[in-house]
Amino acid sequence: MNIKSLSVFAAAALALTSVATAAPKTYQVTGPVLEVTDSMIAVQKGSERWEIARDASTKGEAVKVGDRVTIKYSMTATQVQVKTGDKAEGERTSSDVGAAKKK
Question: If you average pLDDT over every residue of the chain, what do you get?
């Protein structure tokens, strides 16, 4: 293997590593189970009820009401809506970004 091939291989490996480590941050909540359905587990955390969605890909053991569990989860956007009109202090719109690039 020559130096050029080795450099290309190293660059590709680095690029794949960067993509693989770009996973969203994970969080966890611990508490007694209040309710369990096929699509959700409700947990008591302090005085709050936390409802965590789940589906067929959720890993773990069978859970029942009363079990004390720790649930690991990540936050994923399901929809993004750009608000037009008045913007809050410090907010930028796509037109602001375009204007800044032209300057």
Answer: 80
